[in-house]
Design brief:
This protein is an alpha/beta fold. It folds into two domains: about 5-205, Spore Coat Polysaccharide Biosynthesis Protein SpsA, Chain A (Alpha-Beta Complex); about 215-295, no CATH class. Helix content is about 40%, strand content about 20%. The longest helix has 20 residues, at about 240-260. The radius of gyration is 20 Å and the shape is globular.
Length: about 300
C-alpha cells in the first residue's frame, strides 16, 4: 500500500496588491505539479478584499483568510495557524513559483522533518523577464554561513517542515527589512538544509517593497547579529564572534555608502577593521575617501 502524499501549504500574505501580479502569483501557486498542496492567501486588511479580486478563481485548494491589517509578519503567522500541511512555503503576492518546484523540494528532503529544502531563485524585472539566477551550494548545518551572509536564498525558494516553523515561533515585526533573514536564521538552529539545483521561484524586483528608512538595514543587521549571539553564548570571545561582528560592520558600511552616507560608511568600516580585518575587502578599503593609507594597504 502506498504512503499518503504529504500536504504542502503555500502561505501568501497580501496587502495593497497589484491585481495582475496577484493573479500570476496565485496561478503559479495553484499550478504546482506532482504534489498535494493548498494555498492560503492572507488578506492583510486590504482596502479592496482579496476575495473580490479573486472572486472568479474557483479551486478547493485555495483559501482566503481576511484579518485586520497587522503587517507581513502577523499575516505569515496567521497563515501557519490556518495551515493543514506538514510542509510550509512562504510566498509573496508579486512572485511566481516554478511549476515543479514544490515537488522537487519535497524529494530533496525525502520526508525528513529535520531538513529544510531550497532551490535557486530567478531574479526578474517587473515583467518577470529573467535577469540572472541567484544560486547557492551550501548544505548541512549552515547557520554560521547564513549569519555571515553566504546563504544566498530568497524566502519563496525555501520549503520548511511545519514542525520546524512552529519551533521557530512567531515572525518578528520589529525587523523592518530583515524579518525573513531573522526567521531563516532561527530555523537553522533546528534543521539542516538540502539543495535542489533547479529554479524554485521567479522573484520580481521592483521598488514597491523597499523601506524608505535608509538606516533600517544596518539597524536590522545589528539586531540580527546580537540576537544570534544571545542564543549562542558559547560564541562569546571566539574568533567567530569577531568575524561575525566584522561582517556586520562591513555590510553596514556598504549599505551606508550605497545610500550616500560616507561618514556613516567610514565609521562602520573602521569598526569592521577593528573587529576582524578579514571582513573588509580591498575594494571596500579603496572606496572611502579619508581612510588612512596604512589601512588601505592591509
Amino acid at each position: 500500500m502506498s504512503a499518503v502524499a504529504p500536504l504542502v501549504t503555500l502561505v501568501m500574505p497580501v496587502w495593497r496588491p497589484r491585481e495582475q501580479w496577484l493573479r500570476e502569483a496565485v496561478d503559479g501557486a495553484l499550478g504546482q505539479r506532482d504534489c498535494e498542496h493548498e494555498v492560503i492567501v492572507v488578506d492583510d486588511g486590504c482596502d479592496r478584499p482579496v476575495s473580490d479580486l479573486l472572486a472568479d478563481v474557483i479551486d478547493p485548494r485555495l483559501r482566503i483568510v481576511r484579518v485586520p491589517h497587522g503587517g507581513v509578519c502577523a499575516a505569515r503567522d496567521t497563515g501557519l495557524a490556518e495551515a493543514r500541511g506538514q510542509w510550509i512555503r512562504y510566498i509573496d503576492a508579486d512572485d511566481v513559483l516554478e511549476p515543479g518546484s514544490t515537488a522537487r523540494l519535497l524529494r530533496a528532503v525525502r520526508g525528513r522533518e529535520d531538513l529544510i529544502a531550497y532551490g535557486a531563485t530567478a531574479m526578474c524585472d517587473e515583467e518577470l523577464t529573467l535577469k540572472w539566477v541567484l544560486r547557492c551550494r551550501l548544505e548541512g548545518d549552515i547557520a554560521k554561513q547564513c549569519l555571515l551572509g553566504r546563504f544566498t536564498v530568497r524566502l519563496p525558494a525555501l520549503l520548511f517542515p511545519r514542525a520546524v516553523a512552529e519551533r521557530v515561533g512567531r515572525w518578528d515585526p520589529t525587523f523592518r527589512v530583515a524579518e525573513d533573514w531573522d526567521f531563516v536564521l532561527r530555523a537553522l538552529d533546528h534543521a539542516e538544509v538540502r539543495r535542489d539545483p533547479g529554479v524554485a521561484a521567479y522573484y520580481r524586483r521592483h521598488g514597491d517593497g523597499l523601506t524608505g528608512d535608509p538606516t533600517a538595514g544596518p539597524r536590522d543587521l545589528e539586531r540580527l547579529v546580537e540576537r544570534h549571539l544571545d542564543r549562542h553564548p558559547e560564541l562569546a570571545g571566539t574568533p567567530l564572534e569577531r568575524r561575525i561582528r566584522g561582517m556586520r560592520h562591513a555590510v553596514s558600511s556598504r549599505i551606508h555608502l550605497g545610500r550616500g552616507h560616507p561618514r556613516r560608511a567610514a565609521r562602520d568600516l573602521l569598526a569592521a577593521l577593528a573587529a576582524d580585518p578579514r571582513a573588509v575587502s580591498a575594494e571596500a578599503r579603496q572606496s572611502l575617501p579619508g581612510l588612512p593609507s596604512r589601512l588601505r594597504r592591509k
